[in-house]
Amino acid sequence: MAAPDARRIVGAEVPIPGSDKLRWIDLTVPSVAPESPSNPFVCVPQRAASGSHIIPFGDSQYYLTWRLHEEHQNVLEVIELCASKEFPNSALRLVFQEALCPFAYLCKREGGRQGELVYLLYVLTVSGVALLCHLRSPFSYVSGSILHQDDIVEFNLQTHAQSAKVTAVIVKPGCLVIGRQDGSICCYSLGKLAPNSPGFSNELRDDAGIGRLWTLMSRTKAVGPVQDIVATVVNERNILFVLHLDGNLRIWDISSHTKLLNYNVHLNDVEGHPSRLWVGEADDDQELISLAVLHQGTVVQDCEHVALYGFSFSAGEKFLFSPEPSISTIPLLEGKLVDLKIGTGKLWILKEFGSMLYEILQYDFDTEKICSYVLQEDAISEQLFQSSDDALDDLVWTADSMFYSIKEQAFNFISSMFLRRLLQPGVNHCSALREILLEHKRFMSDSEFQSLTANGLRKEILSIIEQEGRSQTASATAYHWKKFSARYLHSWCWNNRPYGLLLDTNRDVFGLIRKGSFSMFRCLESAELLIYGSSDELRNFDGLEMSLLDDISDFELLDEVLRCMGHIHHLLGRSSTAIYYESLISSVISSDEIASQIIKMLETGFSPQPSSSLITLLGTDAYVERRQAAHKSQRKFSVEMLLSLHKLQSRSTSWSTVFDVIEKFMKCLNTNITIQKYETKRVCNVNSVLLVQATSQVARTMFECAFDLFLFLSYLVGVGGQVSLLQSDVARIKLKLFPMIQDILGQWIVLHFVGISPTTPPTIDDFSYQLSSLQLGKADELSLHRKLGCSDFTLACLLDFPKSPEGDVLSTCFPSPAEVINLVRRFSHSIMCGSNVERVQTFSGSTINLSAVLVRHGQYEAAQSLLGILETYLNHEKLSQAGQDADIAYSAYLHLNGFCLLMLAHDEANIILRESKVHDAIRCFFRAASGHEAPKALQKFSLETGFQVSGECRSISLWRLHYYEWAMQIFEQHSMSEGACQFALAALEQTDIIVDLDNGNEAEGLPETATMIKGRLWANVFKYSLDLKHFRDAYCAIDSNPDDDSKYVCLRRFIIVLCELGETKVLCDGKIPFTDLVEKVEQELFWKAERSDLSSRPNLYKVLYSFEAYRNNWRKAAAYMYRYFVRLNREGNAGGSRQLPHVLQERLHALSATINALQLVDPSFAWLDSACEADDQISPSKRPRNLLMENPAFGTDSELSRLRFCVDIEILEKEYILTEAQYMLSTVKSRINFSESQSIEALMDILINENLYDLAFTIVLKFWKESGMKRELERVFSAIAQQCCPNGAGKSERNLTDSQQLLLLPSEEDAWDVNTKNIAVAHQLQGSCHWETLELYLEKYKDLHPRLPVIVAETLLYTDPEIEIPLWLVQMFKTNKAGNMMISRGMSGKEADPAALFRLYINYGRHAEATNLLVEYLESFASSRPVDVLHRKKMSAAWYPYTAIERLLCQLEEIQIAGHSVDQCDRLKKLLHGALMSHLQQVVVDSEDVLSSIGGGQGMESRSS
């Protein structure tokens, strides 16, 4: 985007940061005039226009600027600027009812109240309505409101008798002057007189003071349409300059309405018709005024001319202008003029020579030379690598090879480089950036976009690039950034088109008004003039340190050196400089590695990696073409460089002479210039941000120049053999010139970095930020904190600015271009060298001080970046020299860098990055303390980091002790226990060193005794280790603590924290050897357990159990669990009458653990002292009664006596069973509640009613022996049997024990919680039928008590006489233990034999069953097997209940006699009679057989015969 002609550059545009972020206050201006007609009355060509008016007010000077956009002709923007104040946050946007002509005038209203500032705004609509608006400052209007009618004066020009259209307009305060199409000129006293007042309107005519005849003749003279009008003050006279289309330039005195001069500009043979006119400020001393006329429509298309006229005038009584002015012509070649301003001896031209391509020219009246200024478009184009087709293509071409070693970080590196350039003030523009975001579908509201910080903008832009492919190669990343930057540059240029120039002739202030921003201009620094100038002009630079060059030969040598640097720049562009710059800032890749890669490219040319991505991006043909072009450029560069080097060698006597000239040139690049002493102060206004922006521009140019010089010298060393470079010359370059260049590079990169890097917003926990949000504190501090984080508020704005000789920090007016560059020099010097000229600091010292300032303001990330630059410099310095200053600088660097890392780690969300920064901070602090000069280096950073040592330390060890304690505290403040622990250990080490030195003499310097210090430090180590959950290290710290009080406090804290974290297993797993602290640990645990709630977790009684169990102290383990059980008995119900299930379960667990532990103890010691263990002296509540002691079922009196003093396993088992019973009852919805005041029999009845038979039988077996056990078994089975009889419920109730009958039904207070879960109980056996349950338990316990079947059968028959006895129960009477029926023995047997069943049948009137049972056995006896016959014939082999049989017969007789069931009884009697007769006959036969056998063999033989 360079200008069409290469003119000498004398200055550069400096944008005012923040001018693109105005909040507009929309104010509607009402009007009664009709809408604009299709043929407007005002024929001024529509165009974008702007203007600026200077209004002094008090000690300040306001610059009122206005803008009229081409696309919105009815909207006028008014911005109020004051150089000594901050850039305004809001501006006024006036919305008119119809389009305006491209003209406006603003001035101050006179005669207002003191302290009140009211502006007068004159505008003219296209329909011919002139409006005068009163605007009050500051602009406190509400957006969307309507300007009050009293503040508007309206006048319609069409109502005047003169009907010719208006072609030009100008305003002086109180006077509106218009020029018409017929050449007439009218003046209206708008704002001074009422429209109807006499003298309100006047027409300037040629007939003033002459007769009527002459009037008539003069009025017939033709005059061309008015083209332009300019009003100015000449020698205190209001003069009007009018330019007509026919070339007439007429000068009028407005006050007297007389014409002073009529001059025709066509007399000068300037091509084209005159179209516009500009008039400069009159020089009353020299009586000279300059005019400029634009001539358009020349023969050569698109070639305009500006004719410059110099009119002299006489200031006598007869005020006259000379009719013969001086004339000079300025051809504009191509393009069209946009604006022009005339200053003192100079003229500035804003020209457009293409679509959005502009340039500003400066014409010097004396030398008649035209110079140019660097516009921001060109600067942005160069920074975004868009200035030529090769610059960024070089980056795309070389990216893969340049970042070959960091392929993974290439994307982040390249993105960081572009983002840093894109978001710097002057490049970043809100409207342009938002357009790009919208193009990529990043939709945000105005408030959302305005609230974005610099980091927020980075994330949004980076996400767009990431969509293109983050995992692509470096060349692809550079290519996508190129496309994005090109689109952004186009948007920037569209939203920042130049509208007009701003000029303050009183102070030679020169600026530019753009569509979306404002800017000023500056002169170039001396080195910039050398870079942009030509060799012929080098000798003409005055006052630019060129006096350092001795003669013409030095200029020639310097010119050749600059030409060599130009060759390098032409080959590499600015991409190599940008990469090297970013490597110094980001520290992703070594800057030395980048520099070596660049030098390698200079020597061998571009050598791109054979990458398919390049072919994909550029295309195959373009790839081959670029490759060939790269080789061609490299060959051309090598030849040109070799020729230039030989020319250098031929022009100098030796290379030493060349190096002398280079050293002198480097002094121009250095910031250590000698200036007068001055003071500094921090301010924040438009001038300060303008100065910061100018400084960053100069710094960038200087850095690039110094880097080109570095590349030149590096290339010279590489080709030294071809140009006769001696080893001494090489040594001079490496040992002297390179360190000087590194120092210069460091200075300018630091200045540039602080000038473009935005500040970071304060963290939410920052106290100063909280004060700001509450509107507390000083006004400047509040303003500072509000601006932190804004993209246009850079780090340099936090620094102090140099005061002027008048005492002001910065002037209340905008500085001139020359003043800007002088301020840049002073500001740069104040940053890098300090305000005191007598104390010149080194680069390392100034960078450290600057970093400390940033740390003081909370800019830790920026300070770390500066320190990274310093680290690179210090590494180079270590190679060249070492000494006390280097040690001081390195210690200070490490100290500040560690502090910044610590602060950044505190706000880091990523855990991995946070830990990495913490470790780096620890390493930095340790290395900082290791330096011998550390006490001296760190003593001045107490305000920034808080480290301060009062008094003098007698030894380095004592100082390190203080330093490590400070580091420990600051890590602790930010909850970084790892670092705090390390520094606490380091402080302990230093304490030992101090005590050991000279047999303890050095210990006198300690503020406390060594034991106190060690105790405090070990306590801190314990605390930090505990925070890190390094429990073993925490215990070691406790054990190492020499202070007993501190040790025991830490031990108690150790136990408390372990309990709170649920890490009590650490106490019990044996990994920590408590050694002599075992008893103390046990005491603390028990003390805490006794004072803890039983529901707390973890349960400390269980912890004590595990603690003792690991040490095989089973008796203690049992005692603690029994103590837990006792407390559960007493406190578990929390005052309720019903036992809670979870409490009962805990009691079961406690008893189980107690029993298990006691079983591992020697039987003689397997008991617990219940009285001792159960006492609780702290809690005075009454000890609960023990159910076991009150129950006589426990055993003998001796056992009860022993229980009062001790508890053994048997008692614990009984307690366990009772507790289990209560627990099981609590898990079912029992209607009956059991309390410990009731008997065990009552408990058993409840268990049976709830079908908990297993527990009932367990209680019976555990609590009763012998007959008592049988009695209780009979009672239990009787109860079970009753439940099998559904028809016998009434009788079963009468069988309940008295104690059970006394139980009350549960009340509403005892109702269960509906949320209580039903627990599956163990009593659910096979099947749900009571008969199955009865059969199962009867089979199980009949061996224990053989009479149980009889009890069950009798209960069944008693409960329900009609019940049918189940077959399995009958079989129990009939069969033996093996399950066989013993028919041969008759009906005899044990207690539950067939005879017993027979009797039961008889007793309960079951005559049929009894008869059948008897007949069955009698018939079975008669039909015995042969094997049983011998047994049957033995004496008393079989037995039958004859008495019962007789009773049966008697009962049948009685029933028959009574007339009941006569037939059945008769049948049963016959059946019995028959069976008995057969049986008796069989008995007779068997008896005879027995007698025969007793009689001997004779009887047998006879019988056989």
Describe the structure.
With 1505 residues, the protein is an alpha+beta fold. Helix 21 (843-856) packs parallel to helix 23. The strands form 8 sheets. An 8-stranded mixed beta sheet has the order 25-26-27-28-1-31-30-29.
Helix-strand layout with pairing:
Elements: E1 9-15, E2 23-28, E3 49-57, E4 60-68, E5 75-82, E6 90-95, E7 105-108, E8 117-124, E9 129-137, E10 145-146, E11 152-156, E12 166-172, E13 175-180, E14 185-188, E15 201-204, H1 212-219, E16 226-234, E17 237-244, E18 248-253, E19 258-264, E20 273-279, E21 288-296, E22 305-314, E23 320-321, E24 326-331, E25 336-342, E26 346-354, E27 357-364, E28 370-374, H2 376-383, H3 391-402, H4 410-422, H5 430-439, H6 446-450, H7 454-469, H8 474-495, E29 498-504, E30 509-514, E31 518-523, H9 526-532, H10 552-572, H11 575-586, H12 591-604, H13 612-618, H14 620-651, H15 655-669, E32 680-681, H16 686-718, H17 727-756, H18 767-773, H19 779-787, E33 801-802, H20 817-833, H21 843-856, H22 860-880, H23 884-907, H24 911-930, H25 934-937, H26 942-945, H27 956-973, H28 977-996, H29 1010-1027, H30 1031-1040, H31 1044-1061, H32 1065-1068, H33 1078-1090, H34 1100-1110, H35 1114-1131, H36 1141-1159, E34 1167-1168, H37 1170-1174, H38 1187-1190, H39 1197-1203, E35 1207-1208, H40 1209-1227, H41 1240-1249, H42 1253-1263, H43 1266-1283, H44 1289-1294, H45 1298-1301, ...
Parallel strand pairs: 1-28, 2-6, 2-10
Antiparallel strand pairs: 1-31, 3-4, 4-5, 5-6, 7-8, 8-9, 9-11, 12-13, 13-14, 14-15, 16-17, 17-18, 18-19, 20-21, 21-22, 22-23, 22-24, 25-26, 26-27, 27-28, 29-30, 30-31, 32-33, 34-35
Helix pairs in contact: 3-8, 4-8, 4-11, 5-8, 10-14, 10-15, 10-16, 11-12, 12-16, 13-14, 15-17, 16-17, 16-20, 17-22, 18-19, 21-22, 21-23, 22-23, 23-24, 24-27, 27-28, 28-29, 29-30, 29-31, 30-31, 31-33, 33-34, 34-35, 35-36, 36-40, 40-42, 41-42, 42-43, 43-46, 43-47, 49-50, 50-53, 52-53
